[in-house]
Amino acid sequence: MPPPPSSPPGSPPCPPTPCALVLVLGDAGRSPRMQYHCLSLLPRYDVTLLGYSGSPLVPPLACGPPGFQARLFDPSLPLANARPLRRGPLLPLYYLLRLLSVCSLALFHALRPGSAAPPSSPPSFLPSLLPSRYDLILLQSPPSLPALALAYLLSLLCGRCAVVLDWHNLGYTMFPDRPGAWRAVRALVRWYEGLLGRLLPHASLCVSRAMRAWLLENFRLAHPVHVLHDRPPSLFSPPTPARKHALFLKLQASSSLSTHPLLPSLPPGQTLLTASPSLPRAGRPRVIVSGTSWTPDEDFGMLLDALVELDERQGGNGAFPDVLCLVTGRGPMKDMYERKFAAHPFKKVSIRTLWLEAADYPTLVGCADLGVSLHTSTSGIDLPMKVLDMYGAGVPVAAVGFECLPELVQEGVNGRVFEDAGGLRAILEELFGEGGEEELGRLREGVKKGKRWEENWEEVVGEGVLPALPAARAPALLLAAATVAVLLAALKLQHPPLLADW
After folding, report:
1. With 87 labelled, which of 263, 410, 469, 486 sits at a CA distance of 20 to 30 A?
2. Domain containing residue 376
3. How many structural domains are present in the chain?
4. Quick one: 163 and 309 in the same domain?
């Protein structure tokens, strides 16, 4: 990370660039909103992204822009040999050990020496205790456990530095609401989330107006709460025909598309969508793209049922185009649904699952005629992030309806809303059938009218949140010394090699 700019001779020294910590206690590569925060903060701060390793970062961060560093770690390493604890009565002990392990690793990577620019105002005797200090902590919730407690401790170590909490959802709603121990856990997490949600941040962000109203009414937040709707970033844009052609040539050679039944009949150099780098292919299939994490909060069976109905109704209709459904993502239910896909003898429809390089994903989204969102919120007040990828690429969306979805998807303006498989099937028949291209064109025009992430972030955060944040004070030295001592002891037991980096 470059040093702060030097001052001309005889002039006052330039203040050092302030440092921001963006905290994601999850796979950082699967949190695009927090990565977009990093990009937006960079002109004002040197930014450290702290999170779990796994998925690649978005290309603008993966290339290592000046002022940015990623401190990513594997949270499973300290408990790699603790499988017997994951069953039966010892399961609560496993979860407790895992929380402590994550906290010790996150603290180590947050505070260890690195290439970050020096903090803006540390006392001269602190670097030996706290090699890294921050002027701003921006964290994501959920997961609220242990992220809120960890951020509170870090903020105290940094002199109660400014903290901004970005509410993506309500963490407690991810615990089952059923009688017995789980209901008690859910109630405890809700209390913890509300308490630290009031005490920790100087300002909060949230993804919908409905969430803001809920937080103010139920958690009684006294600090400013700003609605920062997700918007597509500039890295998503409609791809050129040449990019579409190059991507499909690549996918047809090396992915599940290589088994598509239409490929043997294509002339050399053509793809399912394009006749050449500049021309679409006559008779091409209509393309649906759906990004999913293959978890129960996305009812992928609804899309499968809709496609089965569509195939049964249109399979013998020569005027109706073929339909290619491309599903991206990884998750626990993927194998189960792939077996279900294979069990159906489709005529007009084909379904393929893909895992793409980060640089190829925006192009694939832009190849779609229609995006499909199956996200149903556990709280009813968050919004599906994948829809923004589609809007950024100029693609309208069909989304399953829930309470606050109209804040993002307006029926008949930039997308369509359905409630069940029959409703989705009817939308596909309308938009892909005779006269449907005209309606798709109107929806594409509606998509173009939305703001981009950069403009929206500057209005809400750059102009509304950051100027009102307080400056950090002197850190609590006794707390810092105690924390570092406990951290070093924990690392000595769990990860002795890490101490060499301290």
Report:
1. 486
2. 241-450
3. 2
4. no
Q: Where are the beta strands (DSSP E) in 283-408?
A: 286-291, 323-328, 349-354, 370-373, 397-400
- CATH number, domain with residue 396: 3.40.50.2000
Whether 309 and 441 map to the same domain: the answer is yes
Residues 207 and 315 in one domain: no
Residues 208 and 251 in one domain: no
Asked whether residue 149 falls in the same domain as residue 55, the answer is yes
Q: For Cα atoms 21, 25, 29, give the angle at the middle one, nearest 5 degrees.
A: 85
Is residue 8, in this structure, part of any structural domain at all?
Answer: no
Type of residue found at 222:
A
Residue 372 lies in a domain: yes
- For residue 3 the two structure tokens come to 């040093």
210 and 347 together in one domain: no
Q: How many CB atoms lie within 10 A of CB 297?
A: 15
Query: If we measure between CA atoms, which residue out of 232, 337, 346 comes closest to residue 292?
Result: 337
Identify whether 166 is part of a domain: yes
pTM of the entire predicted model: 0.83
pLDDT in tens, the chain (502 residues): 334 444 455 555 556 889 999 999 999 998 999 999 999 999 899 999 999 998 899 989 999 899 999 999 988 755 555 666 666 676 777 777 778 888 888 988 888 876 443 434 333 334 344 556 799 999 999 999 899 999 998 888 887 799 999 999 999 988 888 888 888 889 999 999 999 999 999 999 999 999 999 999 999 999 999 999 999 988 888 999 999 999 999 999 887 788 888 888 888 889 999 999 999 999 899 999 998 777 766 788 899 999 999 999 998 898 999 999 999 887 778 888 888 888 888 999 999 988 888 789 899 999 999 999 998 877 888 888 889 999 999 999 999 998 899 999 999 999 999 999 999 999 999 999 998 999 999 999 999 988 899 999 999 999 999 999 988 765 555 565 666 566 556 555 555 555 555 5
Contact 182, 175 (CB under 8 A): yes
Residue 3 domain flag? no
Tokens matching residue 88: 């039966």
Measured N-to-C along each axis, helices 91-111 and 147-157 cross at an angle, to the nearest 10 degrees, of 30
Beta strands in 240-334 (DSSP E): 274-276, 279-280, 286-291, 323-328
Collapse the DSSP code of 171 into the 3-class scheme (helix H, G, I; strand E, B; otherwise coil) and give the result: helix
Q: Residues near 192 by Cβ (< 8 Å), separated by ≥ 6? A: 144, 145, 148, 149
Residue closest to 313 by CA, chosen among 435, 438, 421 = 421
Distance CA 331, CA 240 (A): 30
On the CB side of 209, how many CA atoms lie within 13 Å of its CA? Answer: 6
Angle, helix 147-157 to helix 477-494, in steps of 10 degrees: 130
380, two tokens: 């009813």
- Say if residue 224 is in the same domain as residue 367: no
Which of 414, 430, 450 is the C-terminal boundary of a domain? 450
